[in-house]
Design a protein that fits this description.
The chain is α/β, with parallel strands linked by helices. The protein is built from 38 helices and 26 strands. A nine-stranded mixed sheet has the order 7-6-8-5-9-10-4-11-12, sandwiched between helices. Strands 15-16-14-17-18-13-19 form a seven-stranded mixed sheet, with helices on both faces. Strands 20, 21, 22 and 23 form a four-stranded mixed sheet that branches. Helix 8 packs parallel to helix 12, helix 31 packs across helix 32 and helix 31 crosses helix 33.
Length: 919
């Protein structure tokens, strides 16, 4: 059947127009016929399946779809907008159509104004599409579920499509008083539904919908993701132009429309690694050094794997786990047909820190075809390395600019599309949101299903985040997506939980893989079996001597230890404590260089500070730069920087994090360490016999701090002691130990908080495939039932158990009213207050962002503080989209400001600090 054979009533049904409610544009009114949008979507859907999705996704879809995947995709694309063939939709679009079309369109809407449809909100066109599909005789819950979810939200379990026509008939046939008129229009509307349904079946090579495969819940998720992408692309009027009122469109135009749009969009082909066997020479060519024992074991395990699975590498800090994971990912991707890589890290700082390494690696993978790279976190647009990879225009074909290397494809810059790029580096939040009840979550599943997924520092997530991580692993296991988890210090119960989550069942019994304390250790799944290998250590063992000192002894200890030169790191648990200790050390040790590193610097200052630290104490640092240098910092020094201290001082913290901090001590091989510092020493603050300090308790709780203190030896052998110290710290305590009241109270508080976090996380977490009520219907319906998180900012907050915070852009407002950058940023340049900043100025402003201290805007204070700060913002600055949601903190000439009952101050050396106004 051809489009020309369809009835004139169907051919004049409109899908789109260039005008909207409230529009006063004088431009000519344009439109797009329903049938043409359907054929556009169909063409893009076929391109996505044939040219874009990786082979591994097709393998995932194959058990359900087999060789009927393309017919199914055609059908879904053709019928996805059936709900636009209703009186309700016609009434909404009619006023904005070209006048030449209004007569034909009136056949549908019957002169009813949108206000007459009393239940309009209960028949959105995706739900109406699914209801019409069922009404046409396609009683297929699986297909209806995909159609109803193509705007990102599956239908609720409480929604029964069969009720639509009985309860809300006016939405479909018009709420006329004249019954005869309604009956006539109803017959006509039902006729065009049936025509298009038969057209879609015929074009898909089917006689009835029973010729289409029945698909499972995981397949529904991926097909819905594909349909959303196809609909978004075909709805872009830059690539699929609308028609003027005198044009009806020709079916013969559609193939060229689709071909031209696909060429302009230029989505990159799936990643295909060049080397399936990474021997030592290939490894050295990619990474610059020969593989060590850990890296060789990872490559060998990946090479011998018969099926995709999960692999957990536990190995010491600084051993090269990142390179081991990337090398294994290459092998897995080529073997299992994965088309990309997703690398998740704990924070924006760690993501930014590793990005240059991943970019360099990506260049080695893009020598035959260009690969789209995506830095996926909220502030990626401010990363200069990332912005340097932007293409000049969103619709430049690869062959028209460059055909190798990595680049930023602007289509993937949308918040929802982040995980669809070939190479994704970002915070682990981006992965965890695949387990969050959020609209368009299917796009995250589509993006992850075709990649090798690497998650770094997997021990660094609390009980709340672990609930999301385990659910993500459950879905990835269902998709047979290869997963690599990296950790220096992983408790054995976490290892077992992660394996079981991926397998979707209790781990098989047998062997000691759950309880072994071998190290370094590689654990992986081979089908339903769990295998394990202890890796022989081929690097020197480091013996770290531990000693306890007090805050009062700190200055004397550092002065004595560094009198012959060298550098020391002081890592404490709160920003306030870091700032206080730094001030005390500057007063007591005037001959020393004191630097501060924490999260309460503006983004620009933080980047400058990180670069300076890498220069002074990074891998290539010199004795002159390190001489008599003390860096006082918080947890930002644990993970984000490849730095090396000659001496370490640290607050007491949980054992795994303490060992992580020790990984910054004598991290690099260095011959020029001063004689007193040639043997590694770690001094512990707050490690006496009293209760842990309040700041540390607020961050970590009491139990892990007390347990760590009890188990601390006099020396730690790295990496040999790592597994025993970590496992003992996190193991359930002996009942005899809990006879002491302080320990019992700490343990009960600890277990109670763990349970509270787990229960709280489940509120917004999607269920496992085939779980709960949805299993009885075998559809994705109800996936987002209960409150769903729509806003991306709140979504990232939802996967972390943190209190709401407020970020501000820090500027100076002079006595004369002029607004300037801080003196050391852009030479303190002025920013006009009477005009909207240009894009480059907006980006410069955003780099001055810092998060306010929790004490200043805790709880309900956040709204009051936000309102207070908003009164000082120039109205012109609210116009640019980049600044619309931002808050500003204007400092006086002394770089101070009053906010609520607090005095805030900002300095280049110490960042943002605060004190109560009365003090």
């Amino acid at each position: 059947m051809k489009v020309s054979e369809l009835s004139s009533e169907l051919r004049c049904v409109a899908a789109k127009t260039n005008h909207r409610k409230g529009s006063d544009s004088k431009e000519p009114r344009l439109w797009l016929p329903f049938w043409m949008h359907a054929l556009d979507t169909e063409g893009i859907m076929i391109h996505l399946v044939q040219d874009w999705i990786p082979a591994s996704v097709k393998e995932t879809l194959f058990p359900d779809c087999g060789d009927r995947l393309l017919p199914l995709c055609r059908f879904l694309a053709l019928v996805h907008d059936l709900g636009k063939m209703t009186s309700l939709f016609a009434a909404r679009i009619f006023p904005f159509l070209p006048e030449t079309l209004q007569k034909g369109q009136s056949l549908l809407w019957g002169g009813n104004a949108p206000s007459r449809f009393l239940d309009a909100g209960l028949s959105p066109h995706p739900i109406a599409s699914a209801a019409i599909l069922c009404k046409c005789g396609c009683d297929r819950p699986d297909l209806a579920a995909i159609i109803s979810a193509h705007h990102g939200a599956p239908q609720a379990l409480t929604t029964d499509l069969r009720d639509q026509f009985d309860v809300y008939p006016g939405n479909y046939f018009g709420p006329d008083v004249n019954v005869g008129c309604v009956e006539q229009r109803e017959a006509m509307i039902r006729g065009i539904w049936k025509q298009w349904y038969q057209f879609a079946l015929s074009r898909s090579g089917c006689t009835t919908c029973d010729d289409l495969p029945v698909v499972s819940v995981p397949t529904q998720m991926l097909l819905t993701g594909l349909l959303i992408v196809a609909d978004w692309i075909s709805s872009d009027t830059d690539n699929f132009p609308l028609l003027n009122g005198a044009q009806d469109g020709q079916e013969s135009d559609c193939p060229q429309r689709v071909s031209d749009a696909w060429h302009r969009l230029a989505l990159p082909s799936p990643w295909r690694p060049r080397h399936g066997d990474l021997d030592s020479s290939v490894f050295k060519n990619e990474f610059g050094f020969l593989p060590n024992a850990v890296q060789r074991s990872m490559i060998e395990t990946a090479s011998q794997a018969d099926a995709p699975g999960i692999c957990i590498l536990e190995a010491q800090m600084g051993i090269g786990k990142t390179e081991a994971a990337l090398a294994a990912a290459e092998v897995m991707a080529l073997k299992f047909g994965c088309g990309g890589l997703c690398f998740g890290l704990p924070t924006q700082a760690t993501s930014n820190g590793i990005f240059p390494r991943l970019e360099s690696w990506g260049e080695t993978q893009s020598q035959e075809s260009a690969q789209a790279i995506r830095l996926a976190h909220g502030m990626s647009q401010l990363n200069k390395d990332y912005r340097a990879l932007f293409r000049p225009a969103p619709n430049v074909a690869v062959e028209d600019s460059q055909d190798t290397g990595v680049f930023v494809h602007q289509w993937f810059e949308g918040r929802k599309q982040a995980l669809l790029a070939n190479i994704v580096i970002g915070t682990v939040d981006q992965l965890l949101m695949a387990a969050l009840k959020q609209r368009h979550v299917m796009l995250r599943h589509l993006g992850l299903a075709g990649k090798v997924v690497i998650i770094d520092e997997c021990h660094a997530y609390d009980a709340y985040m672990n609930q999301y991580l385990e659910m993500v692993l459950r879905w990835l296991g269902t998709y047979r997506t290869p997963v690599i988890l990296l950790s220096a210090t992983l408790p054995e119960q976490r290892r077992a939980a992660l394996i079981e989550a991926y397998l979707g069942q209790a781990a098989p019994e047998g062997g000691d893989w759950q309880t072994t304390r071998s190290y370094p250790l590689l654990t992986w799944t081979d089908g339903s079996r769990v295998r394990q290998e202890k890796i022989e250590i081929d690097s020197p063992v480091k013996i770290v001597a531990l000693k306890k000192i007090t805050d009062e002894e700190l200055a004397g200890f550092l002065g004595s230890s560094l009198r012959g030169g060298g550098c020391a790191g002081v890592i404490v648990n709160t920003v306030v404590r870091a700032q206080r200790l730094a001030a005390e050390l500057r007063a007591a040790l005037p001959g020393m260089k004191i630097l501060v590193a924490h999260s309460r610097f503006t983004m620009s200052d933080r980047a400058d500070r990180d670069a300076r630290l890498l220069s002074l104490i990074g891998r290539g640092s010199t004795s002159a730069g390190r001489d008599r240098l003390i860096v006082v910092g918080t947890q930002v020094l644990e993970q984000s920087l490849d730095i090396d201290f000659d001496l370490l001082v640290t607050d007491l913290c949980p054992m795994d994090l303490l060992l992580q901090r020790m990984g910054r001590l004598h991290r690099h091989k260095r011959d020029g360490r001063p004689a007193p510092l040639r043997d590694p020493v770690c001094a512990l603050l707050s490690a006496g016999d009293g209760p842990p300090d309040p700041g540390s308790r607020s961050v970590y709780g009491s139990w892990l701090l007390l347990r760590t203190r009890m188990l601390l030896p006099k020396t730690v052998s790295l990496p040999l002691d790592i597994p025993s110290l970590v496992q003992e710290t996190y193991a359930a305590p002996d009942p005899a130990l809990l006879e002491e009241e302080p320990l019992r109270e700490a343990w009960e508080e600890h277990t109670k908080k763990l349970d509270q976090k787990e229960q709280k996380a489940k509120q917004f977490r999607i269920s496992a495939p085939g779980a709960s009520k949805r299993a009885r219907r075998n559809t994705i319906n109800g996936l987002l039932d209960t409150a769903a998180v729509d806003d991306d900012i709140h979504a990232q907050a939802a996967v972390r158990d943190t209190e709401p915070s407020l970020s501000v852009i820090v500027l100076v407002r002079g006595a004369d009213g002029t607004i300037r950058f801080l003196p050391w940023q852009y030479q303190g340049a002025c920013i006009p207050a009477d005009m909207p900043p240009c894009e480059e100025e907006c980006l410069r402003l955003l780099r001055q962002r810092v998060t306010l201290p929790r004490a200043v805007c805790a709880g309900r204070n956040i709204a009051a503080v936000s309102s207070e700060l908003a009164t000082a913002v120039p109205s012109a600055w609210k116009e640019p989209e980049l600044l619309r949601r931002e808050s500003f903190l204007f400092l006086d000439e002394e770089h101070r400001a009053r906010v609520g009952s607090f005095i805030l101050s900002y300095g280049q050396d110490d960042g943002l600090s605060y004190q109560k106004e009365e003090s």
